[in-house]
């Protein structure tokens, strides 16, 4: 096994709110290896975005962050803003769903890619323009020199997302975090962007963290999957193993909600992962024991309501397939 590019260990994030601490991330751990794709899935509100923002120091001052995240040998948690600024872009590139880090509407594409280039590479003047054009071509934007003069509103949603990827890649990062990067796009553009990221990943050896609530895309792109619920990993494993033999009642519920693969409707109109009855818990009022027990269709007994189940190997599965439930598929765990 290679040394992980990114090793997150027991990450906790709580926001100070008037209602008391909102415990949004509650002991998340995962590893990302070079050239691999890790998918982080879970319903909206499960803490996927907050976790990645915490790694990069992008949360507001009301957030208390604990735990460890070793990137390329160095601890990220607790580092200064100056240090983290160097990590962002050149070490870890990010692509978010609009509008979270949407493009600046009043600057040309050239200016925006140029800023990213100047921040990370020692290029200036004409070097910036030609490297920016190269990046646009690399992300599949035709007629790059013309497009460089365009403003964001002059481009389609798919093109803007490609520009975001070009900006994320400007620093030649070792890790790319794609947070719902294709969720707002139609399925054809989504497929093109996924293909593009895979190609760049092969060429650059990047590790990719692919965050999504759309399980439909995960099977095709991920090597390893982490399923989040209420800020914890409740199940993880190699993609075939996890889809083939889901063990946690929550994962089995999510897989029941898988959208049809050739569904022509845009992603946002397809079924999202909400067909499971009930709602995720309020992070300011987490239930004791297993956070999933109030919704669990399998069994919720006195133990589930008092004792948090540890993330432990699934009996009879590959070692890296782990689930946090006293009632994994195939029988009770001792
Ligand atoms: N700045 C904040 N202050 C308080 N709560 C927040 C803040 N940002 C996010 N949250 C809460 O954290 C939870 C997880 O959010 P998020 O990580 O965005 O979920 P998702 O899994 O959909 O990406 C949600 O309940 C959200 O309301
Ligand atoms: Mg999110």
UniProtKB/TrEMBL annotation:
Matching entries from SUPFAM superfamilies are given as:
P-loop containing nucleoside triphosphate hydrolases
**Which InterPro entries would you find in this protein's record?**
AAA+_ATPase, ABC_Ni/Peptide_Import, ABC_transporter-like_ATP-bd, ABC_transporter-like_CS, Oligopep_ABC_C, P-loop_NTPase
- SMART domains under this entry? AAA
Q: GO cellular-component terms in the record?
A: plasma membrane
> Where does the ABC transporter domain start and stop, copy by copy?
6-255
> CDD domains from the xrefs?
ABC_NikE_OppD_transporters
Q: Which UniProt keywords apply?
A: ATP-binding, Cell membrane, Membrane, Nucleotide-binding, Transport
What is one Gene Ontology biological process annotated in the Swiss-Prot or TrEMBL record? peptide transport
Q: Where is it predominantly found?
A: membrane
Specify the protein name.
Answer: Peptide/nickel transport system ATP-binding protein
What is the organism field in this record? Jiangella alkaliphila
């Amino acid at each position: 096994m290679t040394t992980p590019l990114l090793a997150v260990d027991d990450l906790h994030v709580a926001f100070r709110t008037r209602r008391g601490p909102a415990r949004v991330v509650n002991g998340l751990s995962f590893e990302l290896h070079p050239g691999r794709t890790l998918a982080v899935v879970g319903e909206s509100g499960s803490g996927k975005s907050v976790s990645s923002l915490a790694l990069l120091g992008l949360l507001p001052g009301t957030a208390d962050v604990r735990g460890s995240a070793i990137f390329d040998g160095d601890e990220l948690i607790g580092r200064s803003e100056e240090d983290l600024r160097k990590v962002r872009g050149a070490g870890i590139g990010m692509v978010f769903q609009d509008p979270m880090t949407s493009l600046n509407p009043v600057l040309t594409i050239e200016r925006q890619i140029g800023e990213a280039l100047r921040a990370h590479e020692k290029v200036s003047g004409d070097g910036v323009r030609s490297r920016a054009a190269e990046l646009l071509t690399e992300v599949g934007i035709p007629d790059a020199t013309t497009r460089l003069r365009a403003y964001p509103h002059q481009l389609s949603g798919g093109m803007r997302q490609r520009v975001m990827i070009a900006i994320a890649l400007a620093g030649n990062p070792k890790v790319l975090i794609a947070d719902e990067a294709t969720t707002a796009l139609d399925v054809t553009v989504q497929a093109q962007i996924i293909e593009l990221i895979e190609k760049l990943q092969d060429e650059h050896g990047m590790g990719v963290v692919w965050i999504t609530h759309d399980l439909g895309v995960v099977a095709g792109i991920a090597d390893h999957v982490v399923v989040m619920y209420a800020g914890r990993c409740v199940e993880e494993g190699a993609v075939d193993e996890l889809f083939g033999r889901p063990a946690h009642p929550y994962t089995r519920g999510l897989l029941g909600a898988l959208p049809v693969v050739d569904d022509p409707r845009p992603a946002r109109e397809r079924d999202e992962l909400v067909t499971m009855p009930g709602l995720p818990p309020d992070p300011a009022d987490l239930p004791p024991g297993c956070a999933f027990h109030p919704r669990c269709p399998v069994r919720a007994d006195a133990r589930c309501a008092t004792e948090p189940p540890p993330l432990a190997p699934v009996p009879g599965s590959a070692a890296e397939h782990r689930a946090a439930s006293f009632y994994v598929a195939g029988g009770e765990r001792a």
